[in-house]
Structures are given as C-alpha cells and as structure tokens.
Amino acid sequence: MEVVGRTNSAGHLYTTTYHYMADVHPHPPVSSSPSSESTSPNDSQIPPQTSSQTRPTDCLSCRIIGTGALGATGMYALNQARAHQPGSVFGKRIMGGVGVLFLLGSVVRWRM
C-alpha cells in the first residue's frame, strides 16, 4: 500500500491510497502450467478439481434476491396478461409467455 499526498490547483492537500495486489493477496499467484522448477512439496496434496467444484456458487442472500426478482417480474407479466388488463389478445399472449419464462428463470436461478 502506498499513500501519496498531492495538492490540487486551489492549493488543497489531498491523499491518494494505492493498494497493490501483493498487499491484498500476500500469496503469489498459482501458475496454470506446471513447471519443474516451481513445484513445491504441497502440490501433490492438492486434489484435482471436478466440474462441480469449479462452478462458482452464490451466497444465500444473492440466491433469494435473484429468485425473488425474477419471480416478481414473472408474476407481474402474468398479471398484465389477464383478461381485465387493457391490450390486444396477441399482446396478452406474449406477456403470458414472458411471465412463464421469468418464473421458469426464477426456478433455475434458485437451483443453480
């Protein structure tokens, strides 16, 4: 981390803080290609990753918010497709399809 003090054109002093990757992550990055010089004794203890381990997972609150947003949008679109709402029959069918797709998207979002 480096803190730099500067003055602007009006003569006011302000500071800028620079964070470098070495400050944020103290461990050096892992090389994707194995080389004979950089292998350490701990490399043999790391298990190989499967496809389910490489997929990123979201926190519970992110899943709830994403699912709720998609579900609410789907319910709104289905409400707009009801008979008492103004619009053409073709437009209502499109809104019904969009609503169903958003609801399916919320189910997929929750399960991923």
Question: How would you describe this structure in keywords?
Answer:
4 helices, 112 residues, mainly alpha, two-stranded antiparallel sheet, 46% helix, flat
Verbal overview:
The protein has 112 residues and is mainly alpha-helical. Helices cover 46% and strands 11% of the residues. The chain has four helices and two strands. The model has no long low-confidence stretch (mean pLDDT 75).
Helicity range:
40-55%
Q: Regions with pLDDT < 50 over 5+ consecutive residues?
A: none
Mean pLDDT: 75
| Largest β sheet strand count, sense and barrel closure | 2 strands, antiparallel
Strand content: 5-15%
Question: Could you give the count of β-strands?
Answer: 2
H/I helix tally: 4
Instruction: Calculate Rg over CA atoms.
Output: 26 Å
Shape: flat
**Distance linking N and C termini:** 38 Å
In order across it, which strands form the biggest sheet? 1-2
Q: H/E element string? A: EEHHHH
Supply the helix-strand structural class: mainly alpha
Break the fold down into its secondary structure elements and pairings.
Layout: E1 2-7, E2 13-18, H1 21-24, H2 51-54, H3 60-80, H4 89-111
Antiparallel strand pairs: 1-2
Helix pairs in contact: 3-4
Brief characterization of the structure:
The chain is mainly alpha-helical and 112 residues long. The protein has helices at residues 21-24, 51-54, 60-80, 89-111, and strands at residues 2-7, 13-18. It starts with a strand and ends with a helix.
